[in-house]
Design brief:
The protein is mainly beta. It has no helices and 15 strands.
């Protein structure tokens, strides 16, 4: 893949925006490719690395289960969480989705986003991502994303 232009998270909008992503997204855990897609959407928000939303048709949904956990985003609405059944284990809350997002985010309805820190590896155009710091946000950090980034100690109130 070609080298991408550096993006500052401080140039991303607030409220967040949604845009199509033209690259390859992959998610893997314990040798299993959970997702592979050229049809993802990115949610971009000031101070956050992108969150990638993958259509269900490009995910091994038969390995995932709804966990019952929910959270609320002031912009996107209510999120529900998904876990993974693999090798006789159940790993909860490693992905989330918005079934009925608020206006402006309809495009991500039913797409899943994965926490990069809860699976073995996530890739953007073949580059292994670094999870966004902290345990609240789910952004993916690549070499072309610059900060400072929200998520680490002392940044929650930004």
């Amino acid at each position: 893949m070609e080298k991408r232009t550096t993006e500052s998270v401080w140039d991303y909008p607030r409220p967040p925006g949604v845009e199509p992503f033209d690259g390859l997204i992959q998610v893997e855990h314990e040798g299993l490719r959970l997702a592979e897609s050229f049809r993802t959407l990115r949610v971009l928000e000031t101070s956050h690395p992108p969150a990638y939303y993958i259509p269900r048709a490009d995910i091994l949904m038969e390995r995932l289960y709804p966990t019952g956990k929910k959270s609320y985003c002031e912009f996107k609405g209510e999120a529900m969480y998904w876990g993974l059944s693999i090798n006789e284990k159940r790993l909860p809350d490693l992905a989330w989705c918005y079934e009925n997002p608020r206006p402006g985010f309809e495009a991500i309805a039913g797409h899943l986003a994965f926490f990069a820190g809860k699976v073995d590896s996530c890739y953007v155009d073949g580059e292994k991502v670094v999870p966004q710091a902290g345990d609240f946000y789910g952004g993916w950090v690549t070499s072309w994303i610059s900060g400072p980034l929200k998520g680490g100690p002392g940044t929650r109130g930004w």
